[in-house]
Every structure is written in C-alpha cells, then in structure tokens.
Amino acid sequence: xxxxxxxxxxxxxxxxxYCLSHTTLQAQKTKMPIEKKWWKEAVVYQIYPRSFKxxxxxxxxxxxxxxxxxxxxxxxxxxxxxxxxxxxxxxxxNGYDISNYREIMKDFGTMQDFDLLLKExxxxxxxxxxxxxxxxxxxxxxxxxQSRSSRDNPYRNYYHWWPAEQGKPPYRWSFFDVxxxxxxxxxxxxxxxxxxxxxxxxxxxxxxxxxxxxxxxxMRFWLDKGIDGFRMDAFQFASKDTTWPELPKxxxxxxxxxxxxxxxxxxxxxxxxxEVFSKYDIMTxxxxxxxxxxxxxxxxxxxxxxxxxxxxxxxxxxxxxxxDFGLVKYKDIFSxxxxxxxxxxxxxxxxxxxxxxxxxxxxxxxxxKFRAISSKMLSTFVLTMRGxxxxxxxxxxxxxxxxxxxxxxxxxxxxxxxxxxxxxxGGDLRAFLEQxxxxxxxxxxxxxxxDTTENEGxxxxxxxxxxxxxxxxxxxxxxxxxxxxxxxxxxxxxxxxKQEPAFVYGNYTLLDKENPNVYAYKRELNGKKxxxxxxxxxxxxxxxxxxxxLKSKIILGNYKSxxxxxxxxxxxxxxxxxxxx
Length: 581
Ligand code: GLC
Fold this sequence. Notes:
Layout lengths: L1 H28 L8 H4 L2 E4 L15 H6 L1 H6 L4 E4 L3 E2 L11 E5 L6 H13 L3 E7 L8 H8 L11 E3 L19 E4 L4 E4 L14 H17 L3 E5 L21 H5 L5 H11 L7 E5 L5 H8 L8 E3 L10 H4 L1 H14 L7 E2 L9 H5 L7 H14 L3 E5 L20 H12 L4 H11 L36 H6 L4 H14 L1 H5 L1 E5 L6 E8 L2 E8 L5 E2 L10 E5 L11 E2 L4 E6 L1
Parallel strand pairs: 1-2, 1-13, 2-5, 5-9, 9-10, 10-11, 12-13
Antiparallel strand pairs: 3-4, 6-8, 7-8, 14-15, 15-16, 16-20, 17-19, 18-20
The protein binds alpha-D-glucopyranose (GLC).
The site of alpha-D-glucopyranose (GLC) has 9 residues, from loops.
C-alpha cells in the first residue's frame, strides 16, 4: 500500500516536472523576438481634415475644428494621429498636390493654428504624423513653374522631361489621367513631362540631388517644429528607370511590380534616413512597399536603416467585396505577411483609409441589421493583429459607403477623370457609376457624423461633400451614451491592446485555416495566450480549433449574451477574444 502511494507521488512529481519544463519551453518559444519600440505599441488614428470638423462654417473641415475635438480623440485611447496633407495646395487631389511645403492650406487655417494643434496634441500625449507627398508636387509649385518655363532653367531637372523632337516618349500609365497617359505635352518648351497621377501632379526627379536635399530640408522644417513622424505618400514610385525601357503590354494591370521599387529607391531611403530620420526619435511609414513580403521587408528591415514600417496593398487590392474573393484567400494574405515579418521588420495593419471604401461596406455588412455588429468584429481584427493598427476616422462609429447616384456628387479627381475618359471612349457609364458605389474613394470621405443637428454637427455651412443621411442614427453623440455602441467597443479594444503586450508583439498562429467563414488565430507571448475568433459571415458559423480548455475565458466580445449558444458556434459577425489559462 505504502509502495503504491509512493509510486503515485513519484508519478505526480514527474508529471509536475514535465508540466513545468513544458510551460517554460512554451514560454521561451513565445518570448518576444522583436525589439520594443513606441511606434510598434501605438494605435494610430487617421484624420481626413477636410471631413473631420469645420470650425468656420465654410463647409470644409479645418485645423481649429480638429483642435475642438482633441478631447474626443484622446478619449479613444489612441496614441498618434496621422493627418492627411494640410500644406498649401490647389486641391486637384485634396492636398496630395502641394504647391508650398512650408505653408498651411488656406482652407485649413494658418501656421499659428498648426502650432497650436501640435502643442495641444502633445499636451494630451498624442503624437502627430504628417503626410509627405514628394513623389510629385503640384504643377502650381514654384519649382514646376520655373521648370516648365525654359529648357535651361535651373529647375528644369527637378522634374522628368522628354523633348518632343525625339518623338513620343515610351508609354507610361497614369493613375488619374483621363487617357491613362502619364506623359503630358507642354507647348511652352515643346516637351512632355511625366505625371503618374493627374496632369496637375508632375513627378519630381529624385535622381537630382538638389531635389533630394530640398525634401530633406522640408522634413527638417517640420521635425524641428516637433512633429513625430512622416507617412511617405506614394514614395515607392519615386525612383524611375530613366532609360525609359519599353514595358510589356498590359503592365498597368500589375503596376506596382513595374512602378513599385525603381532602381535607386532604396539608396534614396537610406540617404534620407542618414540625413534626417536617424537624427530624431520619430516614426516613418511607407505607403506601399512593392508587391511581395520580400519587397516590403526591404523597406523596413532595421539593419538596412530605411523606414520603420510599411503598409502593403494586397489585402485591400484583393477585390471589391469579401464575398467576391473569400475569407480563405484573405486570411492567407495576412498570414503570409505575418510569417515573413515574425523575426524582424514591422508592418501596419489597416482595413480602410481615405483611398478606400468604408471597411464595414467592403469587409463586413452595412445593412442596418449587421452594420454595428460587423463593424465591431472588424475593429476586433485590426486591434488584435500584429503590426501597428491604422484606424480610419469614422470607422469607430461604423460609418459606411455613401453610394452616390450621380457623377455630379463626386469631387474626387480619380472618379471624375475615369468617368470623362470612359465617356470619351463611349464606354458604359451606368456600369461605371454602379461600380463606384462600391469602390470610390469618396465613400470613405464623407464628413464625420458628430450628432443629429443639421449637417450632422460637421459644419454650419454647406458641406464640401454630401453627408451620409444615416447620420440621424449613426453619430458620435448617440454612441457616447450607449455603453454597447461601436464607439465604446472600439475604446475597450484599444484599452485591451494597451494592457496586453501579446496583442502587439505576440506570435500569431492561424487556426482552422480552411474555414470559409471564421478567421481564428492565436496570439501568444511569454506564456500568455489569446484566441481571437471572428465570424465574417451573416449566419451562425462553426469552427474547429481543438484545444479550448474549461479554463478559457472570453475577455471581450461583440455580443452581449451568449446564453443558449452551442460551443464551437459563432453568431453572425460574432467576435470573441478568449484568454487561455
Ligand atoms: C496616395 C494618396 C492618395 C493620392 C495619391 C497621389 O496614394 O493616399 O490619396 O491621391 O497618393 O498623391
């Protein structure tokens, strides 16, 4: 009998030792492999200034408007704001065509307003990231005015010119041109200039060291004011192969591959880092980073000393709506990128921005029944993935696509020019307008829905872009009062991310890979484990992840009650964050 008891004790001891070593091993396996940085831990909130808050009744959002809402922004729990361009601009492309990099756009206010904004943000411990557009300038920038004036002007080489006596330049595709032609003939000097975007956005010639030094000076100007970083707009296109080789037919369908990483791009980024970034404690992010995880790594590998992070477009360029491309493919993109970045480098996570339709309309379901619940589910995704979350203003309210019926309602150069181009060719305009209801950038640009007063509390004047009529039910004021609102759910998510480093730095493992409805993954760090379950469908969905123990606990979810729900089933658009003990 005594022997038996001893035997049992020994077995217990062995089991205990095994468990201990297993846990330690597991903890070691999930130890933080990545260097800690403030910008990895930050939650970034993107503000589209034109549409955020108007302070002077001209119908256009402005800097004073943002200042008046800083307490709201702070209340979200976010750490940094990325502000779309606020520099002087004739607004061909809403500020992405800069005519003076050291001045504030009149619509938005003055430099004094800007200085106050920065001060008030820092007072609240919010960092400010500026958007820098230096792949191109406005054609109204003094550099371009000089450059186009004569062939021997000192600014001539600030841009790309092709003398007409050499014939037509080799075709290049343009994102916004009516005829999709990136070379524009300019009679003044009988030459063509290059514009990857609209004709009013000529591309700067980064091969010219003078251009590069001008840009570094501009960067220093803003950094010395105390801003906290830059988003490098369209910078992946900055380096061109100036031997202008013929490109294969149809290359515009794979434009990033051909435009994405030109021959000297990384030299420029390294020089920029050495000259400017390395001298400040800031964050830098590339808009776009080639066409594969390997390309993206080149921008952000810390050993290369270029940028801190990048966002890629595979997950938004995948199609118009989740139901068209499917969840399995979608999960695969995030999982592939995460795998490539698990040891070094850093990415941004986003589902929407000012160039995209609203996240709930594209990846969720914006019918009245599911709009709020699916918005919460998508927010859960953004806030529990590895990578710095970039969260677009208005998504915390579940704002959705506007779906304009008429071309007159659109202000965006992209939609307008494509419409004209199609009209000239006698194309199907009705089909185009139908498609724009899903894809147009204007869907994400309608003014912020503050309250139920006329013009939704955005302006006392006439809004520059039509407001979404659902502001009567979808607005910040109503959601403040409702503990269960998408707004308050977003706040809880931000808080949770800040409390649990596992959501920032933890390993990510995809679970139930082939499940067409449920996105399930594990995040773990130093022995702490979380499972995130997201139902991307409008019906109940099964999942199979195997190892949920009795001790696991839902720490946050978007459904109030789960009574009567069978295990391994999620309700429509349900999100659960589970802690495994
Ligand atoms: C970036 C911006 C977009 C702009 C384009 C040209 O993609 O996000 O809004 O139109 O660059 O500057």
